[in-house]
Structures are given as structure tokens and as C-alpha cells.
Amino acid sequence: MVALTSPDFKRRAARALADPGLQKALKRGGSGFHSKRSTAVAALPEFERLREIGRDIKNHTLANLDHYLEVFERNVVANGGQVHWCRDAAEARATVLGICREADARTVTKGKSMISEEIGINEHLEANGITPVETDLGEYILQLVNEPPSHIIAPAFHLNREDWEQRFRAAHTDLPKDRVFHERRDIMVEARQKLRERFLAADVGITGANFLIAETGSSVIVTNEGNGDLTQTLPRVHIALASIEKVVPTLEDCTSLLRLLARSATGQDFSVYTTFSTGVRRAEDLDGPEAYHVVLIDNGRSNMVGTEFQEMLRCIRCAACMNHCPVYGVTGGHAYGWVYPGPMGSVLTPSLVGVEKSGHLPNASTFCGRCESVCPVKIPLPKMMRHWREREFERHLTPSTIRRGLGVWAWFARRPGWYRAASRLGMGALALLGRGSGRFRSLPLAGGWTRGRDLPAPEPGGTFMARYAATQRRR
Predict the structure, then answer these.
(1) What's the CA gap between 173 and 166, in Å, rounded?
(2) pLDDT at 182 (0 to 100)
């Protein structure tokens, strides 16, 4: 399993802020996601209505999750496939390894899959003598230097073109010294040449699944490179890894969600490849696997059903929330310290590994609300981060200084007269001390704020409530 370093978020975030290469990559990539999504949404007048439809599809499915998972299994079996139910990451790893051993596999090709990162399947296969080969270009680059993804749809989002070239030269030692990579297309050509032989030699192909369709027993993947198709059609065995909430009732439901997915993720109407896999190769088929396995993984998700975090299971992994998050936009994904970064990770990671191990993440938010406003299935991410903050406080996991500060604030908040008097006194003092400069570069008891930014000084004129009352009287 990918090492959990979420408790180290603050140090990793500080290091990210001081990394000029990372800041260059984040600045370059973030603006592109914003503009492309905006253009795609503007071109689809019914987009807001479609968001409501997507939300309702997922809510209905989650309310009847056991039923649709059983229907999905029946249809997979009817098409010659097999479904494996796994309670946790350990069971999932053992199941995949068992399938690979049964196929006498030595090499496994992989399409991009975040759930495979969650269960740590690459490390497990390698430890048991099986070579996994990432075939998504970004994932392939990262595998060369043993780096985890920093983004759920653009795994090498943190790298610049020159970083890609550096990693290629370090790993592809047979490259001529005078070989120049002028653009990413050159890198793609080089990767294609290396990967083609791996595709042909693989005994097993492993993909994720964007959706599982109960009505047909199909798994669906969306890619822009075509590597997913080669991964699941060339080897003798196809394994689809999926978490249990990926199931949807019908083909029509799936197509509705697909209309939301690419527009929210990359600003495309549809991804270049949208592939439906249903069972094993039939006699009349030109290609396809001899064996088709779906490994269904719970790994803590069923514990979210019926709680205030159930809405997180609506997520369709488009990454719109992190693409628009001001915190992710300056720290990148590695600062979050596990598989899922950004706002969705700040809710999902505590749900899967516990707030005791990841309490920094729901606090890594300005609560600006942009994540919720762009979510294609209307997940109230700020509300759920607030729930995690509440649980963290209830369990005495927050630092003592924060708890004492909140205790002082709560004492005044329960006494309106004292609160108003203290507010007037504090505002007046700050306005007087900050007169002229308009800001504070340092302030007692506010070092955590002023170490990284100035604190604006309030203008003379009283508190907000006093100004509001005066305005109301004038009206």
C-alpha cells in the first residue's frame, strides 16, 4: 500500500510552496483545466440539470447498493466472467495475485487505476515475482522513478517537460546522447516503442473502472491514450479493479454520467476512448480476454453508507474539485500524503484510514466553496470537511492551543454582551495600532498567520454588527 504521510501535511506543503519547479507546473496546468471546463460547460445549456440527474442517479444507487451489486454480479457471470468480493486491501491483493498465479503470469500490464494505488497492488505483485507495467504515459513516467501520482486524472501533473525528459534519460539508458525531446509528443513516441513489446508479452491486464453497469455486467473505462483498450483486449486475462460505489443501474444512467465526467475533468465532450467490456471473448469476436474477473473492493466504503459522509460515494473521480482548489493549486497532490489529494481526498482519506491519521487534510481548506460549485454530482465537500473537523475536535485530536482558543471564543460567544464589548475593544485597538501601514507583519498570538502573510488591519468605524445596525437605522 502507498505509504500514508498525511500527518506530515504541513511540512510537505511548506516544501511544495518553496519548490519553483512544482510551482511552475501547477501554475501552467491549473489554468488550462479551468478554461477548458468553463468552455465545455457553457456549450451545454442543460449542464446544471444534468448535474442534478447525476446526483439523483448516484443517490438512488447508494440507497439500493446491495441490490445493484448483486444484479451486476449475476450479469457478469451470465457473460462468462467472475466477480470477487473483497472486504479490504489485503483480500484484494491476495485475489489479484491468485488470478495472476492461476494464469502463470510473469508480466502484467496496467491501465490507470487509483484503486490499484489504494490497495498497493504493484508492490505486492513485484514482491511475488510478477512485473507490473504501467501503460498510462504519466503513470509510466512515475513508475520509472518510483513516484506516486499527484493527481487522480493527470498523475504526473507535478512535472514539467524537462522533468519528463530527465526521468526518461535516467531509466532508458540506451537512449542516444544526442536524442532531443522537443515536446511531449517525442516522449510519447519513445514510451510507445518501449511499451509495445510489453503489451504483446503481458499475460494479464489490469484496469480500473469508471463505472460498473448492473444491467449488463459491463465495466467502463475512459482514457485519452488507448492504453486501456490494449491492456484489456491483448492479454489472456482481464482483471477490472473497482470499488463498490462505481456501480450504476443502467446503460442510460452510465451515459448520463459520462456526459458529466469528461466535461468536468478535461473540458472534452467525451474522452477519446470510452470502452465498455462485457464478459469474455466470444467465438465471433476478433479479440478480447479468455477470462474476465471483476474484483470488487469495499475497504471501508460500506462504513460510510448511512452516515453524513455517504454523499462522498457519489464521486465520479473527475478531479474538478482539486483543479479549482486554491490549496491544491499551490501545494500539489503529494503534500496530501496518500492516494487521493485535494478536497475529495480531504473527505475520503479520513473515511478510509481514520481522522486520527489524516486530520490535517480536512483542515487544509479555505472553505471558499469552489469545489462544491464545480462538482458534477453536487457533493457538499465543505460541509463534510467541517464534519471531520468536528469529529477531530470531539476526539481531542486538535492541538491544545487551538482548543484553548476556541474555548475562549466559545465563552464570549455564549455571552452576547461580553462578545460585543470585546469585539469593539479588539477592533479599536487593532485599528489604532495598524493606522498608517494598514497591516501587521507580526502580532502576538497570531504567529501562525503572520509567518506566511500579513494580517490586514481593520479600518476605523467599529465592528460589522455595529456598522450593520447603523445602516439599518439610517434606512
Answers:
(1) 11
(2) 67
